[in-house]
Specification:
Blueprint (H helix, E strand, L loop, with lengths): L8 E4 L5 H12 L3 E6 L2 H13 L4 E5 L5 H14 L5 E4 L22 H29 L2 E8 L1 H4 L5 H21 L4 E8 L22 H6 L4 H6 L5 H12 L10 E4 L7
Parallel strand pairs: 1-2, 1-4, 2-3, 4-5, 5-6, 6-7
Helix pairs in contact: 1-9, 3-4, 4-6
Length: about 270
């Protein structure tokens, strides 16, 4: 299927590794010029080099997106390097820290405001800053695609992940509201909800790419939570997500807006 994305420009947050990296590479393979955003310059540059080496166009948009001024500067630099942003993928996020490696996250009553702010700043305010930076141009051109990458914790709620669940739910509510506000501007806003994803940025444990149900007992137990994982014998991978991003970024999805699509192996069904 030709998604007719050639010539578009995308800004992908958290694009330096994992799901974000795969989204950048697959959008580029469809002919999209990609601004790879990451707070770590070496990550952003590495993915941008991968894209250029494959014949694509890319720009390393290094910025701390929890700071609005840095977002505005990164989007302006992207527009100068690649052109106006047609596609925004709000992929960057942060999870709560475990008390110890492999241990359970704390209950809400055992957390403090400093930890809440870190989660909310990146999952909510950074998303809003990015949307605020690209929406005026999208509205002027009467075309745009915004895709938020959230967690199923935001659709179902997760014990010991209360603040994270709330922040991810905010991504969904915000997307629906913006979809209503800017439908008349032909701007599509949708959300992809993920469960556990195994990727190259995770070096060890159940989410490591090297983990299998045979060599990792915790992974074997985790697979039971995802209906399709029981058959596939694996968790989600970045490439399971990037194809849907490419579709939603295209005009093949022109009539899809304000929706949440679960790519979580059936962890949440709705």
């Amino acid at each position: 299927m030709d998604l007719n994305l050639k010539g578009r420009v995308a800004f992908v947050t958290g694009g330096g590794q994992g799901v974000g990296r795969r989204i950048c590479l697959d959008l580029a393979a469809e002919g999209v010029a990609v601004a790879v955003n990451d707070i770590f310059e070496e990550r952003a540059q590495a993915v941008a080099r991968e894209i250029v080496a494959a014949g694509g166009r890319a720009f390393a948009a290094v910025a701390d997106i929890t700071k609005q001024a840095e977002v505005q500067a990164a989007v302006a630099a992207t527009q100068e390097a690649l052109g106006p942003v047609d596609i925004l993928v709000n992929n960057a996020g942060v999870l709560v820290e475990r008390r110890e490696k492999g241990g359970a996250a704390p209950l809400f009553l055992e957390t403090d405001a400093e930890g809440w702010e870190r989660i909310v700043d990146l999952n909510v305010f950074a998303m809003m800053y990015c949307c605020k930076a690209v929406l005026p141009g999208m509205k002027e051109r009467q075309h745009g695609k915004i895709i938020n990458i959230m967690s199923e914790a935001g659709r179902a709620g997760e014990a010991r992940l209360a603040v994270y669940s709330g922040a991810k739910a905010a991504m969904l509510g915000f997307a629906k509201a913006i979809a209503r506000e800017h439908g008349s501007d032909c701007i599509n806003v949708n959300v992809i909800a993920l469960g556990a994803v195994s990727h190259e940025g995770i070096r060890e444990g159940a989410l490591s790419p090297e983990a299998t149900p045979e060599n990792n007992e915790r992974l074997g137990k985790m697979l039971n939570a995802y209906p399709i994982s029981r058959g596939l014998r694996r968790l989600a991978r970045p490439e399971d997500v990037s194809g849907m991003v490419c579709l939603l970024a295209s005009d093949r999805a022109a009539y899809i807006t304000g929706q949440s699509i679960g790519i979580s192996g059936g962890y949440v069904m709705q």
